[in-house]
Amino acid sequence: MGADDASSAEMRRPTRPRHGFDPLALDDLSVDRLLTGTLVPASAPPGYARVAELLAATVAAPTPRELAGQASVLAEVRAVARTRSSVALAGPARPPRRRRRAGLAVVVVVGALATGGVAAAAATGHLPEPVRQAARSILASGGDPATPEPPEPAPVTTTGSGGAGLGAAPSTGATASGLGAAASGSVAQPELEGLCRAFLAGKGGEEGRKLAASAFQALATAAGSADKDKVGAFCEDLLPAEAKPKKAKDPEPPDPSAGGNQGQGGPPATTGGPPTSTGGDSGRDRGGSTADPSASNPPANDGTSRARGQ
Amino acid sequence: MIGSEFPAVLSAAAAGDEHAFGRLWHDLQPRLLRYFVVVSPAVAEDLASETWLGVVRGIIRFQGNEPAFRAWVFTIARHEVLDWRRRAARRATEDLPANGLVDQAAPDDPAADALEGFATRAALAEVATLPADQAEAIVLRVVAGLEVQRVADIMGKRPGTVRVLTHRGLRRLAQQLGTDGQVRRVV
């Protein structure tokens, strides 16, 4: 214990009277020990035993009354967590890098197919050298800093919402449906659409071989089969449904595709981890300062909070 | 104190884990309340709630160990006090008499004191009779458990000033308490 220390402190004290005798003189060491609760009252300098008791009382064990308000604070934790997760998922967060590259690769392939009649080349898995180089460099590099302008699919999918999912409200809406859509496949809608266009463009019996090309593997995966007829049917289903009535009426269904292309891209387990954290930071900051996202979040909130397991 | 588990608890709480956040709350809420009871007793509970809102929103950006976290929380707490005083001053010039507000919500609730925490409440009330700077410095050192440097940062003063304030505060307490062995109200 501190008996020795205390007595030495006591002994020091009377030896330095300030302008006469000071009955309550207090050295710095004793001050620190009083304040940190390391000086028991019995060892306190003369006149400070009561002070030591009083200070001990200020740090007594919490009373039930002091611990009564936890529920409301935790409700706030819940609300903020919900807001953050939905903002992070829905907001104009950067798309996961891998997905962006894949999007560019599709752009390149589709572009190659659309220009110069190189469908046949693509069908055999061979692309013109410049295109291949472009694709290679895109896939190898950290990704083009330029935001990929949605080339082919975008005009189709974004005419309704008029944007690439940067607006807070549309992209928030996209989250709710985007999370649902995530279960259906691992490739974003616009990409599938582009692949389907390219796939169907070569209606000459070459589809089966197209599916062998790596760019179309994702399409086969999404279609659930590499069989060309099934992929064809899948694409037939996809394109009309995508292009026709939805966006004319209801702005929400098209949004997942718009958001999927440019923004969060919803899906899959493969990219679900990292993007959540990177997107989360920017989203959180926004969540703190912006009122709008949280206001328009409720649809997404339900899903995320449930997933969190409350 | 949470101790060695603090880093894990902090990051879980920052990620929205309610149980982890509850542990932080459980550790600091009594200290916060006691701090407010001394520096702005009329609105201790409200300011504690406001402080936690700030913690909930800002915890994602906080980095540091447990003492740093504690200091951060009390930094928010002090801002709440200053904000409230500003608002109260504004209100005082408009409608509400500020003094009336304070009187009306005096911290002492005899019935509650009789039931629980009497010694603590009496002790805090005693500290609250000190000049405001001294009382705040002592509470931040003792109840918040902060080191001199952190208290100085929070109060916007030099460490030496904080030492002087606590020293004077303790002396004054000793004078007030006398030697009769009782913790008693002086005012």
Short synopsis of the structure:
With 310 residues, chain A is an all-alpha fold. Chain A has helices spanning 3-12, 28-35, 49-58, 70-90, 97-114, 119-123, 129-140, 153-158, 168-181, 189-201, 207-210, 217-223, 228-243, 245-249, 254-262, 269-289, 292-295, 298-308.
Keywords:
heterodimer; A: 310 residues; mainly alpha; 2 domains; 18 helices; 0% strand; disordered N terminus; disordered C terminus; B: 187 residues; Rna Polymerase Sigma Factor, Chain: A; Arc Repressor Mutant, subunit A; 10 helices; 73% helix; globular
The unreliable regions of chain A are 1-17, 93-124, 138-186, 242-310
Assign the structural class of chain A, choosing from mainly alpha, mainly beta, alpha/beta, alpha+beta, or little secondary structure.
mainly alpha
What is the global morphology of chain A? rod-shaped
Percentage of residues in strands of chain B = under 5%
Oligomer: heterodimer
Rounded to the nearest angstrom, the distance between the terminal CA atoms of chain A is 47 Å
The CATH class of the largest domain in chain B, by name, is Mainly Alpha
Strand residues, percent of chain A = under 5%
Strand tally of chain A, please? 0
**Per CATH, what is the topology of the largest domain in chain B?**
Rna Polymerase Sigma Factor, Chain: A
Query: How many β-strand runs of chain B?
Result: 0
Total number of domains of chain A: 2
